[in-house]
Amino acid sequence: MENDKNILEVRNLQVNFKTYAGDVKAIRNVSFDLRKGETLAIVGESGSGKSVTTRTIMGLNARNADITSGSILYKDQDLLKKSDKEMEQFRGQDIAEIFQDPMTSLDPTMKIGKQIAEPLMVHKGMKKEKALAQALEMMKLVGITDAENRINDYPHQFSGGMRQRIVIAIALINYPEILIADEPTTALDVTIQAQILNLMKELQDKISTSIIFITHDLGVVAGMADRVAVMYAGKIVEYGTVDEIFYNPKHPYTWGLLSSMPTLDSSGDELPSIPGTPPDLLDPPTGDAFAARNAYALKIDTEQEPPFFKVSDTHYAATWLLHPDAPKVTPPAQIVARQKKYAEMQQALVAKQRPSVPVEEEEEQQ
Amino acid sequence: MADTVKLPEDSFKRINADDRAALDSEKIAAPSLTFAQDAWRRLRKNKGAWVSLIVLAIVFIMAFGSLVVSPHNPNAVNPSYANLPSKIPGIGINGFNGTLVQAGQRIDAYKQAGASSKFYIMGTDYLGRDLFSRVLYGTRISLIIALVATLFDLTIGVTYGMFSGWKGGRIDTIMQRIIEIILSIPNLVVIVLLILILKPGMTSIIIAIALTSWTNMARLVRAQTMEIKEQEYILAARTLGERPLKIAFKHLLPNLSSVIIINTMFTIPNAIFFEATLSYIGIGISSPQASLGTLLNDGQKNFQFLPYQMWWPALILSIIMLAFNLLGDGLRDAFDPRTKE
Amino acid sequence: MAKYLAKRIFYLILTLFIVITLTFFLMKLLPGTPLTNQAKLSKSQIALIYEQYGLNKPVWQQYLLYLAGAVRGNFGTSFQFSDQPVSYLLSSRIGPSLQIGLQAMILGVIVGIIVGAFGAMRQNSWVDTTATVVSILGISIPSFVLAVLLQYYLGLKLGWFPIAEWGGFIYTVLPTLALGATPLAESARFVRTEMVDVLSSDYIELAKAKGLSRTGVIYHHALRNSLIPLITIVGPLAVNIMTGSMVVENIFSIPGIGEQFVKSVLTNDYPTIMGLTIIYSFMLCVVLLFTDILYGIVDPRIRITGKAN
Ligand SMILES: Nc1ncnc2c1ncn2[C@@H]1O[C@H](COP(=O)(O)OP(=O)(O)OP(=O)(O)O)[C@@H](O)[C@H]1O
Ligand SMILES: [Mg+2]
């Protein structure tokens, strides 16, 4: 591992899907780290490759998937080099996953107690009674009321929110090092969403797990994540801390995402959404995949792929706009406002801890 | 980092909206397929379905073509040529060369019958009738019965199912109960009863089969109708006051077509099977008319000594059933987006 | 559950009542009397026989009498064997039919499950191809063709099994194979489709994410979920076996009700045909009721709400 603070290091991952029309290049050279105990949010539109990334980590990709390059290091072991059989050891033990739709992700014909206890019996070789006792504890922990009486119920007897709690209980019962949550609240209604998110945060503290939190909704990221990676057309285009992404975004795609996100002080009028559609991954465009939808596109965007430009030690963005020769552009008003707020925050921070480094200039730098 | 790379002067020129639009359209759009095209593509990839389609085409052409050109008259009795085995010119394999084993010795049956110059590719039956012609004739009758019965069955089933699903509520419940009652008597028993009442013969077989096998179609169509009728365009048509009959033909039927086509492909072999069973039992088509069932029945009597007399009709019957089943499977896979690969 | 059961049993009775009524009046439409098969008789003899069969009463009285009799299992006297009550004929013949029918069902369903499940687990492999070929052949080859082939090749040529006789278990092997082929093929197809569907469902993905092995996923989650719906086709399979048995019993000379049915049809033995029709419907209704209840027991989603569909 490059850095022992990291629990997971994904490097240069490329995944193609073989289809009748050709290879769908779903993941195109993705790299990221997951630090111990942190929550990393991966944000992007539908089809940007978020789920494929998580499935690749879990070793559960569709049969037509072809991992053409890359490595996924977990505790100094490359998960991509593991056989199917070996991967079973990691799944549900070291790495667990919560799926999007709680209505369909539980076995309709198995009692939920047993479903929660299963990972214990599989990985710890526990006897059923003992595993069930532990499952009961877990049910209480995830907030299922009257757990004693409900342990023998079937999934259809629970509401969507309760089912998602059960799914979370299944994922966490072995205290995994890494929890992958693939849009865990998308299928739930808003009030329940908040409850589930709170529960996840709460449990993360209790059992100290790292979370990869997948969503296409930046709104839920703010309260959840420590760091954010923005994904577009199979690539990560910008990553940084939550504050950096929210208040000092550099990539025009991130600007678009943020502008289309409802905020408390947004006027409640129509939100501008990013015009156009993502590119066809069967034949991704040369240069920056976002160029065709990018109001700030440069000529070079159509010719050459932008490398990552460093914004700060923790913040990188892949856009030619950060090149020293690039023209200065003014982001949308909303983004400018955010950046101003960010500058103020930084100043306040500096004011508080006097003897620290000078204020970082967050204009076009380097 | 990358910013050390020297880039051409004009690299950082902004590009305007038109150029970007061009960027978008320059790319060849993914081959986006309509539902029908997609289904067609998948059907074409299905070798089994293709071969079946070709086989069925050949069977149809031969069975109905034999009305015009037939190697022999299927009903021409010729006792001196009775029970000749199959002889296909140019094939020397035992079983297809006109020889058979009699009293432990392989003899040329054609020579014995004084018919050395002739050949019957499937042999002859106990009355010396050309089996190949009879099989063609029998296939034709079986196909006619199956197709006509299926046509009726389709009409009844689709109408019943659409009506039941469209009306919903009490009428639907009663109509479904009726189907349940029909389904609680074995099909063949009902068919036999109906044939007894209507007097054995082709028409009564068709009626009997049609009257008993529409229930499956009705159920499938009903389920689909219930789903479709909640859809917006139908609701719109209803609120606009379009006549139910028009809605049924213009909006419902096209959306039911895949269900109907697929199920028809399974109804036809079923009808063929029932006809064959009836004729085999002896209350179906009777002599001198022939169907695959009667031919099987005739052949089975002598199976021990002259197995080819049953093998040929059995083979043809099985091939037809197989082809329809494979085609039905292929169509179902083609129409079902879930099987997308 | 009790309420549901009561309702189902009520429907069963209603169905049987309708079946009895329909067959009775259908039969009344038929030409021919018990005398059709007999030589010329004097007027008094005819009157006597009419009396014996109750044919001299008005139709509605005959109907009520028949109904009353049928409830008690009395279906009148056979035309063909004039001294035998239909009920005796049936009860002495139902044993062999039940035996080969049940054997065929059990064999077909069990082997079908194995074939179908293996096909689904190894999708698009040679195992799958073989399974598909087996099931499509089983569906395409009529049972009576198979019966003749089995009888000739396994029975006559190889001499492994007796043919056209009825005795112990060994006599049931060939008819069971002939009758079991279609249920085998149908259940293999059904299980394969169900299982392919189940295997691509979210809860199977979750089971894999738990770290269950391939076999664990199949054994603990996929099998049960794909086998439960199989119960719904047991009724249709039973119909298939009943239909097949009429011809297969004939071919193997099995003294069962299928053979009797064909015989009665060919000799216009209406009371026996009626009795058999009712018996067939009764058996089918019982199978349907049984599978319905079973479905309710094994599928938790139905068990709780207490209703099917
Ligand atoms: N088995 C597959 N075969 C072919 N293409 C696939 C397959 N699985 C995923 N893809 C393609 O890979 C791309 C990324 O899909 P992915 O499911 O990761 O998107 P996502 O970011 O999770 O979107 P969403 O927000 O809708 O869940 C999509 O273009 C999708 O069509
Ligand atoms: Mg996804």
Structure write-up:
The complex is a heterotrimer of chains A (366), B (341) and C (309). Chain A folds into two domains: 246 residues, P-loop containing nucleotide triphosphate hydrolases (Rossmann fold); 66 residues, no CATH class. Chain A has eleven helices and twelve strands. In chain A, the strands form two sheets. Chain A has an eight-stranded mixed sheet, sandwiched between helices. In chain A, strands 2-1-4-5 form a four-stranded antiparallel sheet, covered by helices on one side. In chain A, helix 3 packs across helix 4, helix 3 runs parallel beside helix 6 and helix 6 packs parallel to helix 7. The longest helix of chain A is centred in the last third of the chain and has 20 residues. Chain B is an all-alpha fold and 341 residues long. Helix content of chain B is 65%, strand content 2%. Chain B is built from twelve helices and two strands; from the N terminus they run αααββααααααααα. In chain B, strands 1-2 form a two-stranded antiparallel sheet. In chain B, helix 3 packs across helix 12, helix 5 runs antiparallel to helix 10 and helix 10 packs parallel to helix 11. Chain B is flat. Chain C is an all-alpha fold. The two termini of chain C are 14 Å apart. The C terminus of chain C is likely disordered. Chains in contact: A-B, A-C, B-C. The interface between B and C is large, with 37 and 42 residues. Magnesium ion binds next to helix 1 of chain A. Adenosine-5'-triphosphate (ATP) binds next to strand 1, strand 2 and helix 1 of chain A.
CATH topology group of one domain in chain B: MetI-like fold
Biggest chain-to-chain interface with counts: B-C, 37 and 42 residues
Helices and strands of chain C: which structural class?
A: mainly alpha
Structural Rg of chain B: 29 Å
Unreliable runs of chain C: 304-309
- Biggest pleated-sheet summary of chain C: none
List key phrases describing it.
heterotrimer; A: 366 residues; alpha/beta; Rossmann fold; 2 domains; 8-stranded mixed β-sheet; 4-stranded antiparallel β-sheet; 11 helices; 32% helix; globular; disordered C terminus; B: 341 residues; mainly alpha; MetI-like fold; two-stranded antiparallel ribbon; 12 helices; 2 strands; 65% helix; binds adenosine-5'-triphosphate; binds magnesium ion
